[in-house]
């Protein structure tokens, strides 16, 4: 279990290229047709297609109009997978996981001028004086040589590459393990934050 977690934390899903026909063929097997059935309310009970029970109301298959009582289900008539759109929204993050945020070196923190976490607004440690001058690059090289804890950001900042916002470690953990969304990307109207795009107001990058 621990190995899987570690593996997932350092990998990003492969990019699907619509132009790559061979990849498309391979992916076709993994694609799943899904229907979003409409909920109906009936005055008189009718037979459901799944159990043959008399039920009042249910869901109509979006393809063949067979009635099923519960969702999610596979349509007993046409084999279409029927789910509520909220079910899909809930599992959406498994399809497009939030990309890991990158550690922010002091030089980048200075460039960005971030003073607080974009997520929780808690103050981030100020950029040390030696990085505050024009010689920031040289000092940055020096600091890269000094050993620091693996996976820890020297500036305690973690940056989303999609929107460029910087966060504290707590928000990094929460966003990736609980929310599966980046507050920065969300606030810019980008769905998910995993797909990249990176179109937003120019932030002087
Ligand atoms: Zn039924
Ligand atoms: Zn059907
Ligand atoms: Zn935070
Ligand atoms: Zn983001």
From TrEMBL:
UniProt-listed Pfam families: C1_4
Q: Which domain of life is it from?
A: Eukaryota
A cellular component term, taken from the record's GO annotations = transcription factor TFIIH holo complex
Q: Where is the C2H2-type domain?
A: 158-180
Can you provide one Gene Ontology molecular function annotated for this UniProt record?
A: zinc ion binding
Instruction: List the SMART domains hit by this protein, alphabetically.
Output: C1_4
Q: Which GO terms describe its biological process?
A: DNA-templated transcription; nucleotide-excision repair; regulation of transcription by RNA polymerase II
Instruction: Name it.
Output: C2H2-type domain-containing protein
């Amino acid at each position: 279990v621990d190995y899987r977690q570690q593996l997932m934390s350092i990998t990003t899903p492969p990019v699907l290229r619509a132009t790559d026909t061979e990849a498309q063929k391979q992916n076709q097997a993994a694609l799943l047709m899904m229907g979003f059935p409409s909920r109906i309310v009936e005055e008189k009970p009718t037979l459901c297609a799944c159990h043959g029970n008399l039920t009042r109301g249910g869901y109509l298959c979006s393809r063949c109009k067979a009635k099923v009582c519960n969702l999610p289900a596979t349509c007993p008539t046409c084999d279409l997978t029927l789910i509520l759109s909220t079910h899909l929204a809930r599992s959406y993050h498994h399809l497009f996981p939030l990309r890991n945020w990158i550690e922010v070196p002091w030089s980048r923190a200075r460039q960005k001028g971030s003073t607080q976490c974009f997520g929780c607004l808690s103050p981030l440690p100020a950029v040390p004086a030696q990085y505050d001058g024009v010689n920031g690059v040289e000092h940055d090289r020096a600091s890269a040589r000094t050993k620091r804890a693996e996976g820890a950001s020297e500036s305690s900042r973690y940056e989303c590459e999609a929107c460029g916002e910087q966060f504290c470690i707590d928000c990094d953990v929460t966003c990736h393990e609980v929310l599966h969304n980046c507050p920065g990307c969300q606030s810019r109207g980008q769905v998910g934050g995993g797909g990249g795009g990176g179109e937003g107001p120019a932030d002087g990058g």
